[in-house]
Amino acid sequence: MRLPERVGPKPRTTPWAPHLQKDQNAPKAMLDALAERVFALPDVEERPTMFSADGARAIWLKDELPAGPPDAFLGAREIGHFHPWDGSMHVALPPAVAEQAVAKGWAEIHPVALAGLTSRNKVMVYGPRDHREIDIIFTLLEAAYRYARSHADPSIHP
Asked: Which residue of 73, 109, 115, 129 is 20 to 30 Å from 95, comparing CA positions?
């Protein structure tokens, strides 16, 4: 995956849980458009989150599929979740993709991961500010989806 650099400074975020994006928030229409694309992926369903506040829209791998590696999930089969209050999302990206997303300015490692309490591929992806950013962020979320399915379909590689 080749990501472009994110334009502009990194958004301000909170230093611990709840881990929130404090500025450069995604407009609701942008987050909704991104979520619509993600929830249209095969073998994904929207369920309540296990790890965020009420109202977060969680991305789950369907139960009937074999799951990828444990670090492909925030927990159970939850791949990630959207935060409607700030437009950001938490997601378990493939480790190499997480490194690249952080390096290119699209994400930051979750503070719980920085503290060594979970794997460093658990990141906050900043909310999309425009349609171009929806496309780029969708590629990140699609990589997370493929990683979560990596044991389900051997032809899928993160």
From this structure: 129
pTM: 0.94
Q: Which amino acid is at 69?
A: P
- Using one digit for the tens of pLDDT, what is the confidence trace for 68-85? 999 999 999 999 999 999
| From the candidate CATH numbers 3.40.1350, 3.20.20, 3.40.1010, 3.90.1150, the one assigned to the domain spanning 28-148 | 3.90.1150
Tell me, what DSSP letter sits at residue 77? T
Contact 8, 127 (CB under 8 A): no
Residue for token pair 């990206």 = 93
Note the pLDDT tens digit of each residue in 9-34. 999 999 999 999 999 999 999 999 99
Q: List 45's β-bridge partners, or say none.
A: 60
